[in-house]
User: Which sequence fits this backbone?
DNA sequence: GATAATAAATGTAATTTATACATTAATTTT
DNA sequence: AAAATTAATGTATAAATTACATTTATTATC
């Protein structure tokens, strides 16, 4: 994946189609690196590109930023068009500004990563847009510099997840400790000790234990928890240093 | 400086008092948040703005990104024009994309923070451009969203300095441990214990003790050290986790 | 209804890291 | 020779991290 030879052939196919490249004008776009979590695996939402050049190739979803629109608004707009969801966690990754990064346009793209809760409702909407949830370590080649965006976003997710409760954005509202552990194992890409993980996770005092159990993955069942955002906000207000594994 | 890459008609109408705001076109700019360190204090390099609107106000230095230029190249270009220095440490902070952030243009700016070694040579060049090194906790109001950029950059510096040897970019090549401590105290904005700091700093094994002493700040003099980038690179290659205070 | 199977839940000891703290050393100035 | 000044150093205590094995709750099967 992500080979030079592939980029080259992408470029050729663009040339063959005589696509007009208006390089006399600056564009600003935003591309969304959309993460999800399902079946113990971290996933990325990718799309079949619908326009030339590179039509039909896998791509992140994005849009040009409109003249009267904030960059962050544009990203929210794109996300809502695709998933139907508002108020999704999203944060700037970085901007991608190489002069030749897009053969079609002189376009600076602001990468934004989003964390969403995969569920059947989203999936349906997503399918309408020719999208697919790929396993993070089984991604196809993406157009332009989109693979690099994913690499950078993963790196950032790894760094931030430790000190900010990002993980909970990816889990359903109610989750078990083993599920939480699986998530962090997927993000950090390493195995964690179950006893130590549980200890650490609970030591932050921001997980509320519920009476219900989830029995989908064991006979005994595991207690469900939810993240207590109010307490979390209060804690960090007073200087608390959240950390998980 | 900021308007060098504009066409003349825009420039003229912008320059007189009821300036025309060409919001029919997207611009991309880059602004540099330039940090230095001198006399135990963290400093920021700011400039008198030379064009309307807001002519004469303090501002970060920046430029529009040219059509055939990488965003990062543009930032290096600006920095070189001002300081005469190449290969300065610089890294993307984030992009600033609010639709109304600049009353003159629809302009997305990529903030980049730079760390430079203040010395007399730089200062001379800098003065030519109507610039001034301000103490970081005694900054004037800056134009547009530039104060926010500084706040964000400081926050990022605080976070990154701990796990990446950024600090050495701000110090002269040879420095003493007390100087290094002063720097970290300025970045973290808190006092550090001299014994513990020294222990921690030296524990990373990337400081080379020289035979020379610096006697500018004590009768006894303090030994000079330099940062051993080769060893540092080797260590992080093999998974070492650099940390300072 | 007893047994087997399975993942969840729990505790402790050893090691490492972080913190708090006071004295002596080297040098110059008077 | 004495005074002044900053640099340099060590240790004991507390806190955090790591490594590691058994029991528990429940369902499925015989």
Assistant:
């Amino acid at each position: 994946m992500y080979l030079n030879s592939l980029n080259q052939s992408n470029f050729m196919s663009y040339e063959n189609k005589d696509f007009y490249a208006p390089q006399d004008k600056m564009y600003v776009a935003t591309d969304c690196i959309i993460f999800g979590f399902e079946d113990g695996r971290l996933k990325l939402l990718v799309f079949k590109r619908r326009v030339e050049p590179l039509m039909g190739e896998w791509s992140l979803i994005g849009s040009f930023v409109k003249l009267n629109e904030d960059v962050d608004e544009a990203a929210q707009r794109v996300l809502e068009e695709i998933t139907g969801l508002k108020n999704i966690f999203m944060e700037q990754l970085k901007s991608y500004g190489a002069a030749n990064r897009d053969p079609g346009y002189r376009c600076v793209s602001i990468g934004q990563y989003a964390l969403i809760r995969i569920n059947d409702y989203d999936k349906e909407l997503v399918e309408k847009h020719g999208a697919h949830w790929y396993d993070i370590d089984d991604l196809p080649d993406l157009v332009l510099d989109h693979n690099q965006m994913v690499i950078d976003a993963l790196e950032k997710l790894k760094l931030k997840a430790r000190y900010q409760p990002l993980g909970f954005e990816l889990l359903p509202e109610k989750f078990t400790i083993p599920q939480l552990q699986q998530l962090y194992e997927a993000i950090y890409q390493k195995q964690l000790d179950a006893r130590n993980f549980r200890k650490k996770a609970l030591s932050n005092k921001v997980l509320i234990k519920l009476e219900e159990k989830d029995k989908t993955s064991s006979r005994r069942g595991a207690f469900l928890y939810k993240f207590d955002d109010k307490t979390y906000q209060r804690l960090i207000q007073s200087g608390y240093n959240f950390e998980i594994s």
Notes: The CA atoms of residues 207 and 227 of chain B lie 5 Å apart.
